[in-house]
Design a protein that fits this description.
Helix content is about 35%, strand content about 25%. It is an alpha+beta fold. It has three domains: about 100 residues, Rossmann fold (3-Layer(aba) Sandwich); about 60 residues, ATP-grasp fold, A domain (Dna Ligase, domain 1), CATH 3.30.1490.20; about 190 residues, 2-Layer Sandwich (D-amino Acid Aminotransferase, Chain A, domain 1). The strands form three sheets. It has an eight-stranded antiparallel β-sheet, with helices on both faces. The chain has a four-stranded parallel β-sheet with strand order 3-2-1-4. A four-stranded antiparallel β-sheet has the order 5-8-6-7, with helices on both faces. Helix 1 packs across helix 11 and helix 2 crosses helix 3. The chain is globular, with a radius of gyration of 21 Å.
C-alpha cells in the first residue's frame, strides 16, 4: 500500500485549485493555510482535508508558530507555495521544520531579481546591463556607461508590478529620494526594446522534462503601464525561436539550481539575441497554465502536484502523453461586471474566462497560422467591446 504523504499548501491569493485536486487524487492528505480574507473563496473543499486560516500569511514568526503547532499531530512531508508571494515563507518553513525542498538561499535566486541576475551573469548568461541600488558610485558608473532610458525594478515583486521607467539621472535621484530607506530593495536595469517570451517548464532531478515556449503580444511591462489586451501564444515547437529559447532555458534553470518543480522564466529578444529577464519557481500566472493545457494537453498545476507527490514517495515522475496543438490567450480588464463573450464563437475558441471585470478566452488549433489570425482579429474587438484601463499597481494590495 502506498504511503499517504501530507502536503501543506500556502495561498495568499486564490489560486492553485488543480494542484490540490490532483494531490488529493494521488492519495495525499492536503492541508491549506490561507488568509482570513479568502475564507469564502471557491476553494475545492472536497480535495482539502484541513482548512486553516491566518490573519497574515506574510508574518514569518506567526506562520512558523502556526505550522509548528500543526506539526505536533501531523507529519508534514512537503510544503508548496501556490503564489509567488508565498515562496519565501515556504522556504523558511522548510528550513525550520527540516522538510525537503528549496531552502531560503536557493529560493532567493528565484525571488530576488538582483540575486538571479548575479547568478545568471556569473554563469556567463546574457542579461541586460544592471546594478543594485546600493552603492551610489556604482550607480553613477552605470549611468555613465549605459544610456537611458532605464528601468527601476523592485527586487522581489512579481511580474511588472512596481517597475518605473527612468528617463535620466535627475529622474532616478527623484525616485530614490521618494524611496528613502527602501532604495536597497531595488535594482536599476538597462531598457532593452524587443519582443518578450516566456518558457514554462517542469523539472525532475535537474532535468527539464517539459518546456513550452510562448511569445507575448506586447511586453507585460507595456500592458501594465499603458493598458491594453494581454496576449500570449505558443510558438511552433520546431521554430528557430522556440528551439533557441528551450536551449537557453536549460542553461538558466541549471544556473539557478532548480532540481525539481515548476518554473516560469521570461526572456527578451534584442539585438538579434535572447537575454534572460527573470524566473520563478512556480506555475506561471495570468491563465498561462490554461493556455498550455489547451495546447499540450497537460495542466501544469496538476503535473506539479504529481511531481511533488512522486518526490515525497521516493518514486519517479513520468510525464503523460502530450498534445500537439498551438494556442493563444487574450485577457483584459473589462468595463462590464461580467462581459458577454457569446459573439466570440469560432470553433477554435476552447475556453472563456468567467471573472468579474475581466474578459478572456483561449483559441487552439493544430494550425499555428489560424491561431495568429484569430488573435489578430480578436485583439481590436476586445479593445472595442471590453477594455478598461487601470493605473499600474505598485504593490499587490493596491
Amino acid at each position: 500500500m502506498m504511503r499517504q504523504p501530507t502536503i501543506l499548501c500556502l495561498a495568499s491569493y486564490f489560486k492553485g485549485e488543480p494542484f490540490m485536486e490532483e494531490a488529493r487524487r494521488q492519495g495525499c492528505r492536503v492541508l491549506l493555510l490561507t488568509e482570513e480574507k479568502l475564507a469564502n473563496a471557491a476553494w475545492p473543499h472536497d480535495s482539502i482535508d484541513e482548512f486553516h486560516l491566518t490573519p497574515d500569511l506574510s508574518n514569518e514568526r506567526w506562520i512558523i508558530n502556526t505550522v509548528s503547532y500543526l506539526a505536533h499531530e501531523r507529519v508534514i512531508d512537503r510544503i508548496v507555495p501556490l503564489d509567488e508571494y508565498d515562496v519565501p515563507m515556504a522556504a523558511a518553513l522548510r528550513e525550520h521544520l527540516q522538510i525537503g525542498g528549496m531552502g531560503v538561499s536557493a529560493t532567493r535566486r528565484f525571488r530576488d531579481k538582483l540575486a538571479m541576475r548575479n547568478t545568471a551573469h556569473s554563469a556567463g548568461l546574457r542579461v541586460p546591463e544592471y546594478v543594485g541600488v546600493l552603492n551610489y558610485d556604482h550607480l553613477r558608473a552605470f549611468m555613465q556607461r549605459v544610456p537611458p532610458p532605464w528601468l527601476l525594478k523592485p527586487r522581489t515583486e512579481a511580474g511588472a508590478m512596481g517597475i518605473k521607467r527612468i528617463a535620466g539621472p535627475d529622474d532616478l535621484w527623484r525616485w530614490l529620494d521618494q524611496l528613502g530607506d527602501e532604495q536597497s530593495f531595488f535594482l536599476l536595469e538597462q531598457y532593452l526594446p524587443g519582443a518578450v517570451f516566456h518558457v514554462d517548464s517542469l523539472v525532475w532531478d535537474g532535468e527539464i522534462v517539459f518546456a513550452s515556449a510562448q511569445k507575448y503580444g506586447q511586453p507585460p511591462l507595456n500592458v501594465a503601464h499603458d493598458g491594453g489586451v494581454f496576449v500570449t501564444r505558443t510558438l511552433p515547437p520546431e521554430s528557430e525561436d522556440a528551439k533557441a529559447l528551450r536551449a537557453f532555458n536549460v542553461q538558466v534553470l541549471a544556473a539557478l539550481g532548480l532540481s525539481r518543480g515548476a518554473a516560469h522564466a521570461e526572456y527578451i529578444q534584442a539585438n538579434g539575441q535572447f537575454y534572460f529577464l527573470e524566473a520563478a519557481a512556480r506555475v506561471g500566472g495570468a491563465h498561462i497554465a490554461d493556455l498550455i493545457e489547451k495546447a499540450a494537453g497537460i495542466n501544469l498545476w496538476a503535473e506539479w502536484a504529481r511531481l511533488v507527490v512522486a518526490d515525497a514517495r521516493g518514486e519517479t515522475y513520468r510525464l503523460p502523453t502530450l498534445g500537439h496543438d498551438q494556442a493563444g490567450l487574450l485577457v483584459c480588464l473589462a468595463k462590464q461586471d461580467y462581459p458577454d463573450l457569446t459573439a466570440y464563437n469560432d470553433h477554435e475558441v476552447v475556453w472563456k474566462l468567467h471573472k468579474k471585470n475581466h474578459a478572456g478566452l483561449i483559441v487552439a488549433s493544430p494550425d499555428g497560422s489560424r491561431v495568429q489570425e484569430l488573435i489578430d482579429a480578436y485583439v481590436p474587438r476586445f479593445a472595442a467591446d471590453f477594455l478598461a484601463v487601470a493605473p499600474p499597481k505598485n504593490k499587490p494590495t493596491d
